[in-house]
Amino acid sequence: MYRSSETALVPVTSPPAPAIRKQGPVGRYNLVTEDVRFESREDVRDRLPDILGKALAMIWIDREFADLFSRDPQAVLEAEGIFLPENMAIEFQKPGTDRPRIVVYEKRPNSNFKLRVLYLQLVMMAGR
Asked: Residue 66's domain spans which residues?
């Protein structure tokens, strides 16, 4: 609806470029829109559950993603641009039920002990 300012009664200038640049997806499965590097346990607890929630949802609906994630969840997250601190590990567990679980552990230096930082598991409930 912009007219040439040569013939307009009132000169009109073009609108400024938008202030927000839309980011494209980082990985194949679009878990994040830009690289995410976690630095601390608190950072992992605050921000990682949202991302892992998306991963769990993908596991329910995408068989290929579920197979990849079950074999090496850390590699899948890194391919998606999600990097955990060096002292953290992630496990995919599917105990005797159909409800998969993702567990994030903090590894202690010079020890085989692992401290569970968080875990996520989808639970579907119906109500009426």
From this structure: 36-121
Give the pLDDT band (50/70/90) at residue 99: confident
Q: Mind listing the pLDDT tens digit for each residue in 42-96? A: 999 999 999 999 999 898 888 999 999 999 999 999 999 999 999 999 999 886 6
- Reduced 3-state DSSP string for the chain: CCCCCCCCCCCCCCCCCCCCCCCCCCCCCCCCCCCEECCCHHHHHHHHHHHHHHHHHHHHHCHHHHHHHHHCHHHHHHHCCEECCCCEEEEEECCCCCCCEEEEEEECCCCCCEEEEEEEECCCCCCC
CA distance 58 to 77: 13
pTM: 0.71
What total of structural domains would you count in the chain?
Answer: 1
**Tokens at residue 22, please?**
């839309």
Does 77 fall in a domain? yes
- Length of the chain, in residues: 128
